[in-house]
Amino acid sequence: MILHRRHLLLALAGLAAPAFAQPPKSARPAQGPSLSAPRSLMAGAMASAFVSRAPAGARLAIARPSDPPEAAIVAAPLGSASVLALPAPGETGSFELRLLGETDGKPVILLRQTLTTTVPEATLAAPRRVGRSQALPIRGIGPNGDRDRVVLVKPGEPAEAEGPSFYPAENVEDTLEAPAEAGLYELRYVMNAPLSGPRILARQELVVE
Question: I want to staple 59 with a disulfide (CB 3.0 to 4.6 A). Which of 47, 83, 100, 190 is the partner?
């Protein structure tokens, strides 16, 4: 009987004992922003970057590796977008894609990724002869930067010369109207990128009859 009473007292003591709280699980550290983009692309092409968890007011920029945070070849605010494309420099070399924030009113580099640009190239496909004011189907492929043009001009005119044109970034194929004046013309793929400015990458003679 004494043994049973001891067991009963121990059991009651266990029920009355305060429950100890489980140690709190360690909180996960807050994750910072992330940046993902190609590390190599053709000079003058569009560099698309995927960004997540960027702070308010963040900007995406392309700069030289030695440039300070406030220097950029090209930059744009990220806003609420998670994907942003910037035109790569039109020169070959080593650059840096940066996610920029701000501290005490000054830009700071939150993330950086190397970006290597390769030699820009372009091709043109179109008839060699066409009648005056006739439709001229053209295909132009190159870096396809947002300011690149396929343009029809007179031979010898500068790279920035104006004429019938289209933007291959919107569509690599289009139809232009041939000039009303017969003669020799030149079809061009003109890259227009940061650092390089307008630069003729490909050209093809066109005879208008």
Answer: 100
Q: Name the nearest CA neighbour of 101 among 60, 72, 157, 152.
A: 60
Looking at the structure, tell me whether residues 132 and 186 fall in a common domain: yes
Does 146 reside within a domain?
yes
Given a cut of 60, whether residue 93 has pLDDT beyond it is: yes
Q: Are 183 and 155 in contact (CB under 8 A)?
A: no
Residue 89 confidence (pLDDT) above 70? yes
Q: Are residues 44 and 111 in the same domain?
A: yes
* CB atoms inside a 10 Å sphere around CB 200: 16
Interatomic CA distance for residues 79 and 16, integer angstroms: 59
Q: Determine whether 22 is exposed, middle or buried from the number of CB atoms within 10 Å of its CB (0-12, 13-18, 19+).
A: exposed
* Single-letter amino acid, residue 59: R
16: enclosing H helix or E strand = helix 2-16
